[in-house]
Amino acid sequence: MKIVNIRFRKTKKVYPFFIEEDNLYKKGDHVIVETIRGDQIGIVLGDNRLNEVNFESEEEDLKIRKVKRKLTEEEIKELDILDEKARDAYFICKSIVKRVLPEMNLVIGEYMFGGDKLIFYFTAEGRLDFRELVKEVNKTFNRRVEFYQIKYNDEGRILNAFGKYGRELYW
């Protein structure tokens, strides 16, 4: 078994995952991984430095999940269709948010693999009561919709913000 870093497509966060056969996966491959939020698509970045740690001698309990499988060429093409649907859903939701909960700043929308669930990421100054918003959005999209509050610096990473001298910002 080997540990690799996987970057999620929309949030661009990087997490370690186990792979069974390291010769099947290479840098840049699209893979399906199981997360708390369901099956998500990630991109293999390369080896993790945890590969150098001897786990048998240490009593640490690491909760690293396993990569399910590599995406096929057809599934990679379907990602573009899902991204287009998510872009349309974002603008529809943005208009609902503007009307129902104007203090929420919607950042991005994402369909989970398979299109069963729609996730919206947002920023806000404090805690929000968006029960009314969720009811209206669920009725509009006719599927399970979740909202996740992110930090302002995460918004910069998701939207590919650039800083001094044109360098991409990372936090």
Q: What is the total tally of β strands?
A: 8
Reading side by side through the largest sheet, how are the strands ordered?
2-1-4-3-5
| Cα shape | elongated
> If you compute it from the alpha carbons, what radius of gyration comes out, rounded to the nearest whole angstrom?
18 Å
Helical stretch tally: 3
* Portion in beta strands: 25-35%
Overall pLDDT: 80
Extract low-pLDDT stretches: none
Major sheet summary line: 5 strands, antiparallel
* H-E string: EEEEEHEEHEH
Give the N-terminus to C-terminus distance in angstroms: 30 Å
The residue fraction in helices comes out at 25-40%
The structure class reads: alpha+beta
Oligomer: single chain
Could you explain how this protein is built, in words?
By secondary structure, the protein is α+β, with helices and mostly antiparallel strands. It contains three helices and eight strands. Helix 1 crosses helix 2 (131-141).
Features:
single chain; 171 residues; alpha+beta; five-stranded antiparallel sheet; three-stranded mixed sheet; elongated
What secondary-structure arrangement, pairings included, does this model have?
Layout: E1 2-8, E2 14-19, E3 30-35, E4 38-47, E5 67-70, H1 73-100, E6 105-111, E7 117-123, H2 131-141, E8 144-149, H3 152-158
Parallel strand pairs: 7-8
Antiparallel strand pairs: 1-2, 1-4, 3-4, 3-5, 6-7
Helix pairs in contact: 1-2
Short characterization:
This protein is 27% helix and 31% strand.
